[in-house]
Amino acid sequence: MRRCIGVLGLIAGMLASPVTAQVADLRSTTQFRVCADPANAPMSDRDGTGFENRLAEFVGQTLGLPVTYSWFPSGMGFIQRTLRMGTCDVVIGYAQGDELVQNTNHYYTSVYGIVTRRDGPLAQVDRLTDPALKDHGIGVVAGTPPATHLARAGLAPNMRGVDLFVDRRVEDPMGDLLEGVRSGEMGAAVMWGPLAGPRVKDDPDLQFTPLLHEEANPRLFYRITMGVRMEEQEWKRELNSLIRRNQDAINDILHEAGVPLVDDYGKALLP
């Protein structure tokens, strides 16, 4: 996950400047303008089927504002070309502590897990140190925390890596991992819960098992927030209040979508 960053003292005197005020006034008061990837299923999608789309609709209804989108592929340049340009006012799903945005309070915490065939030899595996993994190829997103755990367990030769930041309008690395497990090309894939859980929720062949027992660092559960511009404190407080008052309804949307939820200590939250 991205690193946290402190507020630099040298900009303190700029907070009341006309330039800063102009940036802070970018937020629309007539629309709930969302920055989103148009092809990041199951999170966001231009067709409106992602669970972040459903969350956006819920927030928009709660605020009494129509939802509009500024679409741009996630990855390099996403925040600069959307939120910072003022074409939208919030990123629905953003890792807590990211240095490019100001985070709201987190509205859910999720966890990495392992995808296996329901009828396969790894169906009971719930730890990356399980000896059963040594005889199978394991799909994983390169550079993510589970890759460190797999390497530490001596499974580096088994890893089949894919890239996370690709243009998903033409590539589907998460789908490739799932298909690899389904076909038997790989025995398992270790994936971020919000990306994998909804895809296998109703799959007759595949299952997702949260990795709740890993004790070594890096941790495998992370808080997800909404991201707003650095200067917009009032907007952040408004969203924080909305999250606090509607947490149960937000959880219901996430559970229904198949997103695995855990508490702030990495313990499972049941629907």
UniProtKB/TrEMBL annotation:
Keywords: Signal
Signal peptide residues on this chain, from the entry's feature table: 1-21
SMART domains given in the database record: PBPb
Highest taxon, organism lineage: Bacteria
Tagged with keyword Signal: yes
Occurrences of domain Solute-binding protein family 3/N-terminal (ranges): 31-260
Name of the featured protein: Quinoprotein dehydrogenase-associated putative ABC transporter substrate-binding protein
Source organism: Paracoccus hibiscisoli
